[in-house]
Design goal:
The structure holds two protein chains of two kinds.
Chain A: H1 3-15, H2 35-49, E1 59-60, H3 63-79, H4 84-91, E2 97-98
Antiparallel strand pairs in A: 1-2
Chain B: E1 4-12, H1 19-28, E2 33-35, E3 48-50, H2 62-65, H3 70-86, H4 92-96, E4 99-103, H5 109-121, H6 131-135, H7 139-148, E5 154-157, H8 163-176, E6 183-189, H9 194-202, E7 233-241, H10 242-247, E8 254-263, H11 273-287, E9 296-298, H12 305-319, E10 328-329, H13 332-335, H14 342-356, E11 358-359, E12 382-383, E13 389-395, E14 400-407
Parallel strand pairs in B: 4-5, 4-6, 9-10, 9-13
Antiparallel strand pairs in B: 1-7, 1-8, 2-3, 6-7, 8-14, 11-12, 13-14
Helix pairs in contact in B: 1-14, 3-7, 8-14, 11-12
Classes of the chains: A mainly alpha, B alpha/beta.
């Protein structure tokens, strides 16, 4: 089962989203996942994938972006602890959904 | 000052989800109080509650439901029902200045309790990222604004057990003085967490279980009263200027004619005869009516030793000898104490009592108390006795006394 498949299964189970909509290029905003939704998804992903998401802003646009981020996170976790600096290349980008809400 | 009409009512209550079910249960004395079945209930001194039959997934998409504590879900559903009942689609201009006024005593306490359980009970640092947004006191009002697109004042009042009477009263002030043309006002509460129940129990305020009939455990104004029973739910109403309601042909449930607000500034927990009496007098003054014009009262009537005797004294102080002839209803015996939502639900029951001209019964009043010697309409509803004008009393820990004066349309 690929990372995308596992995330897709989580979204079907927890968010009751039609699996047909959960393609790799599906935009998170179109799936009803806003900044807080992404923060909560990452929280649940930590449990599902046994990883620790670094304490940083994450900005991701599509389901595929989430899967790629998790894959890189797991790869880093296998070799060295994930740090914000180590993940900066995937996390920092423009556009998409950001996990840090404004206060 | 403009006259203020109540044109919409929405409830999520232990006595049902429609005003017909609510009124029918209250009129016929059907109690929603029961033994509470939550994890750890055996540790509670008074394991009782009046709960709401409610499945959030019936009202919210999963992604949205996960963002709302139970108290916000109650508030959003009740507000939608109130606006639907009021009828007529609000224009964008009307929404841009429509107000939301919500009372809640404990906000998202279920979420907060769960967060503490994770941190302290499970010794986990996995605090859920929604804890603040779900738990904050202004979340119910905020979500009503979001769901209904109401962009005027969005205010939350937390004055313990008078919160929602304050919310309705403050909304009334703004509509009556011409600041607002539409207000959604009321309260919501979902306090039935183990932590909350334990804390209420620690104050020795909760009723002990009636071993013969747990549903009758809350006994307002009775000699053998032992305390309050916590309830949950929400009640929201739509307020608008009388002329606007008439012009658009709206159904008017009743008229909110006055609001009195005083503070004991004495003891944080023990109520005051003078403070409560002052609030009733302030409501009469705001309504520009004399005490002789009050036909019946929905009492705060919690079933605690202190409240019921003090409230009796306050009513005597305001109404003198006539106090003995005024029907007084304490409906908390049936729907429990909804804390921050109690005043709103009882305001709705007052509107319905007037509309049907029925004085609602104070149930489980079998043993009279010499200190509570007024006419509490014991155990049986009284047809034709609500009259035309009522007071709805709400008194609170912290000493904030709020009284709403209501007039029937007929």
């Amino acid at each position: 089962m690929t990372t995308t498949d596992r995330i897709r299964a989580m979204l079907v189970k927890d968010y009751k989203i039609d699996p047909d909509r959960l393609t790799a290029d599906a935009r998170l905003e179109d799936l009803g996942i806003d900044s807080m939704g992404l923060a909560e998804l990452m929280f649940n992903i930590e449990d599902e994938f046994r990883v620790t998401v670094p304490d940083e802003q994450i900005q991701l646009s599509t389901l595929g972006d989430v899967a790629n981020y998790i894959d890189k996170l797991m790869a880093r976790n296998d070799s060295a602890p994930a740090t914000p600096a180590a993940m900066a290349d995937t996390a920092a980008s423009t556009g998409g959904v950001n996990t840090q809400p404004a206060s | 000052m403009r006259r203020v009409a109540v044109t919409g009512i929405g409830i999520v209550s232990p006595l049902g989800h429609t005003i017909n079910d609510l009124f029918d249960a209250a009129r016929n004395g059907r109690s929603a109080v029961h033994r509470l079945e939550i994890a750890g209930a055996e540790r509670l001194a008074g394991p009782l509650a009046a709960t709401v039959q409610f499945d959030g997934s019936a009202f919210f998409e999963p992604a949205r439901e996960r963002l709302l504590d139970r108290v916000s879900q109650f508030a959003v559903v009740a507000a939608a029902r109130a606006l639907a009942d009021a009828g007529g689609e609000l224009t964008d201009h009307e929404r841009s200045n429509a107000g939301v006024f919500v009372g809640t005593g404990m906000g998202g306490t279920l979420t907060v309790d769960s967060g503490y359980e994770t941190l302290y009970g499970k010794h986990s640092d996995r605090t859920h990222p929604m804890t603040i947004l779900k738990g904050m006191h202004n979340a119910p009002a905020a979500w009503i604004g979001i769901e209904q697109g109401l962009r005027g004042p969005n205010l939350t009042y937390s004055t313990a057990c008078s919160s929602s009477s304050v919310a309705i009263g403050e909304a009334w002030l703004r509509v009556a003085t011409g600041m607002l043309d539409v207000a959604v006002a009321g309260g919501a509460e979902a306090p039935l967490s183990l932590g909350s129940l334990s804390a209420w129990g620690a104050m020795h305020t909760l009723a002990s279980v009636d071993s013969v009939d747990p549903a009758s455990s809350c006994k307002p104004f009775a000699k053998n009263r032992s305390g309050l029973v916590l309830g949950e739910g929400a009640a929201l109403v739509v307020l608008e200027p009388w002329e606007r309601a008439i012009a658009r042909g709206a159904t008017i449930h009743g008229e909110l004619i006055g609001y009195g607000l005083t503070t004991d500034a004495g003891n944080i927990a023990r109520p005051s005869v003078d403070g409560q009496a002052a609030a009733m007098r302030a409501a009469l003054a705001a309504a520009c009516i004399r005490s002789e014009q009050i036909d019946s009262i929905n009492a705060h009537g919690t079933g605690t030793q202190a409240n019921d005797s003090v409230e009796t004294g306050a009513i005597k102080l305001v109404f003198g000898e006539r106090a003995r002839r005024i029907p007084i209803s304490a409906t908390k015996a049936l729907h429990g104490h909804l804390l921050g939502a109690a005043g709103a639900l009882e305001f709705v029951l007052s509107l319905l009592a007037l509309k049907n001209n029925v004085a609602l019964p104070t149930m489980h009043l079998q043993v009279p108390d010499p200190e509570c010697d007024l006419d509490y309409v014991p155990n049986v509803a009284r047809e034709g006795a609500a009259g035309r004008t009522m007071l709805s009393n709400s008194f609170a820990f912290g000493g904030t006394n709020a009284v709403l004066a209501v007039r029937a349309v007929h």
